[in-house]
Design goal:
Rossmann fold; 3 domains; 19 helices; globular
């Protein structure tokens, strides 16, 4: 039986995600790696990671692994790198993802181009012209023979990064893709019975639960509770307060920092009275909003460049069913990276592993203040593994 890996945020888990899981289930066991409580777009996850774990298990996943915050709120490259390390540790032989193309050949071709020296040289020249990284990357890749516009789709981009990352660590996965169903990434419209996660989040923030109910699997929707919805606006003052205490050196040590953006953020936080003012004072043609949001939240959470594009110190299990429990029993014996079931096990690991968990613990404690009904500290130690029967 094949073991299929999926890397996702499930923020929240919607019908498009369920379609992907269902397609993977046709082939074998399903292992999901999901983001921690802060996500790649530089925001809080709308519901806590243990709730999203239960969503995944009730919608067909066998095993759910955590992507720590220092990876889940990082660049696509670092996000992908952790994901493929975790799936390799879980013994997956196939990586499945959605894409705008729905075809694997153009994604594989582009991944090979991105690893070439010719591409690296062209990219460096493009970046010197002052365009964004995304624009420079697309232009350089197409000049090297990549299919036109393949790097424009958000899902295509992540898919290619998964392939590049897997090959870089020697993960011998088969790569499978299915065409993204319905509305596009961050779309504000519905299409063919599907809605984007961003639109569902928007409706949940507005209290329109009936809309969300239409576009989420019942098993996932039923887990959403009003008090447990997270909104970054609930901790806006806390974020601004911490940012004002940071020195310029603190910003220089952030992950993915370059080109003087540290100085721009430092200056912005000295005068801004809202997060949007910080973002707007830094945003430019060169710096994308998502990147700025990630850097701002990294400064708030105390995440530096220690783990950026690094092999993870451990992989933590969030939940499993009976099949997933057997997967873990087998993989813990052979994994080159420690696979952790309990927070207390991390005390036996390296100093760097403990630092990684300290960041996670701090991030979760702060995240819990962003809920509509804030919760006390200590969830990383108190939360139980999510276990389901099937």
């Amino acid at each position: 039986m094949a073991r299929i890996g999926i890397i996702a945020e499930f923020n929240p888990l919607h019908l498009g995600h369920k379609y992907l899981i269902d397609e993977a289930k046709k082939l074998g066991e399903v292992v999901c790696v999901i983001s921690a409580n802060f996500v790649q777009r530089g925001d809080t996850a709308i519901v806590e990671k243990h709730t999203r774990t239960e969503m995944a298990l009730k919608c067909g996943a066998d095993l759910v692994l955590e992507m720590p915050v220092c990876y889940s709120m990082s660049t696509a490259q670092s996000f992908a790198l952790f994901g493929v390390w975790a799936l390799k540790a879980a013994g997956c032989d196939c990586l499945m993802f959605g894409s705008e193309t729905g075809e694997i050949a153009p994604l594989l071709k582009t991944a090979d181009i991105l690893k070439s020296e010719n591409f690296s040289q062209k990219l460096a020249l493009k970046l010197k012209s002052g365009v964004t990284f995304a624009a420079a990357r697309q232009s350089a890749a197409e000049e090297c023979g990549a299919p036109k516009n393949v790097l424009q789709g958000a899902n295509n981009n992540l898919a290619i990064e998964y392939i590049v990352a897997a090959k870089s660590i020697g993960a011998e996965f088969d790569f499978l893709t299915i065409k993204r169903q319905g509305s596009g990434h961050d779309s504000s419209a519905t299409d063919s019975g599907f809605a984007s996660a961003s639109l569902i989040r928007e409706k949940l923030y507005e209290g329109d639960y009936q809309f969300a109910k239409q576009y989420m699997p019942k098993a996932a929707f039923d887990l959403i509770k009003t008090d447990e919805i997270s909104n970054i606006q609930n901790i806006e003052t806390a974020i601004l307060s911490i940012l004002r205490t940071k020195t310029i050196d603190d910003f220089k040590n952030l992950p993915d920092i370059s080109e003087g953006i540290d100085n721009k953020i430092f200056s912005a936080v000295r005068v801004a009275t809202t997060l949007n003012e910080v973002y707007n004072n830094v945003k430019s043609k060169r710096y994308t909003l998502a990147r700025i949001r990630r850097l701002v939240l990294s400064a708030f959470l105390g995440i530096d460049n220690s783990f950026f594009m690094q092999k993870p110190e451990y992989i933590r299990v969030l939940g499993f069913n009976k099949n997933g429990e057997e997967i873990i029993k087998a993989c813990r014996k052979n994994s080159e990276i420690p696979i952790i079931l309990k927070a207390t096990e991390i005390k036996e690991l390296s100093e760097k592993a403990q630092k990684m968990f300290e960041l996670e613990n701090r991030a979760t404690d702060l995240y819990l203040l962003s809920l509509n009904k804030p919760q006390e500290c200590g969830l990383e130690y108190k939360a139980n593994l999510i276990k389901t029967e099937c």
